[in-house]
Amino acid sequence: MRTRYVAVSAVAVAVLGLAAGCNPGGSSASGGGGEHPAASGSPGAASSTGTGPDLQIALQRAYGKTTDAKTAKISATIKITGGSAAGTTTMSGAVQFDPPAEQVTVRTAGQQVEAIMVDGYEYIKTGSSWRKIDISSLTGGAPMDPTQALAYLQGVSSSVTKLGTSTVHGVRATGYRATVEVQKAAAKQGAKAQDALKNLSEHGVHSIPVEVWLDADGRVVREHSTLTMTGVGSGSMTVDSTTDLTGYGTPVHISAPAGA
């Protein structure tokens, strides 16, 4: 399961970031294509309807507009092909943006793991016991909180394409195809986020193709990314991730598990 968490951590840097705390290792990686995810509720293909700096600004502002909602429900599907980690991982739960916290259920390789991040610690439950991890001790530049990967949208290049409109989980949304420039994103982040992005750069990932769907208030409702990584384990693997945010403003009460 460690290899699978390595992959999940790499995708988290590009998307919404669970602090898995693993160093991917290996020698190189490259960004894959940005096709529409084949997931339930996924928007259908839409024709391009515009490009330009105004679209870039819309994505850069999405971080602030999203986190202003304070809380949301979160779900993600991560599909891995190639290598020993091949398979599908799903996550679902709730996220709090300020102060940063999240509580999710992760299902992967026939196992279910409960994870809570709050007050600078990550709590992982497998079976009946909890493991407590000090996030500041994590290696590989794992993101500290669920807002960091959203903040990476501030590093999108000026080449942004508007995909049109579609419905995501009952919400009318506008889609954008863009590229996150890792160095540009790192320049606008704090030290921990810079470590995460530096880790990607060291493994050959200098840009990340993304598709982002924003609701009428400019908040992220879906983000999709694909990365093809080489030098991980015995060969290469492709990690396709779709992360959805719904139920903005949902009451969320996240606390450390009793006895952990």
From TrEMBL:
<protein>
    <recommendedName>
        <fullName>LppX_LprAFG lipoprotein</fullName>
    </recommendedName>
</protein>
<dbReference type="InterPro" id="IPR029046">
    <property type="entry name" value="LolA/LolB/LppX"/>
</dbReference>
<feature type="region of interest" description="Disordered">
    <location>
        <begin position="26"/>
        <end position="51"/>
    </location>
</feature>
<feature type="compositionally biased region" description="Low complexity">
    <location>
        <begin position="36"/>
        <end position="51"/>
    </location>
</feature>
